[in-house]
Write a structure and sequence with these properties.
Blueprint: H1 13-28, H2 34-49, E1 53-60, E2 63-70, E3 77-79, H3 83-91, E4 95-97, E5 115-123, E6 126-135, H4 143-157
Antiparallel strand pairs: 1-2, 1-6, 2-3, 4-5, 5-6
Amino acid sequence: MSHEISIDSNLSKEERYLQLLSQIKAIVAGETDLIANLANISSVLKETFSWWWVGFYFVKENELVLGPFQGPLACTRIAFGKGVCGSAWSRKQTIMVDDVETFEGHIACSSASRSEMVVPIIKNHEVLAVLDIDSEKLAQFDVIDQQYLEELTALIALLF
């Protein structure tokens, strides 16, 4: 396993994702512990894109429970259908929010968060977890982020 990543910050966002995905595949190769893998993935994502918060919530007994993350203190539990995370879980689809203050029912774990993207991790048509990413900048995320983060979560689903 590699102990460091090397992503050229001069590359386009898409090129950085392509480098990142290949390096994440190398990081998780041979490692069977889900928590260790998700901890490293959250770290790599935060370091590469300098987002405010990156982490995972696991589906446990009809709520989302905080898993590995990088960033400031987070909400520990989120109900089904509540906030951006619970909504992505209930809809079984990615939700991208340009301004969290306009998302009805947004859960403000941090007042510094301004935009958010949540991507469900789905295996056999069942949401097992969500990848939650927050930025302190408005409209931080776009379709390129969505495309590659959905590709990443498909890879993560294989780790479950």
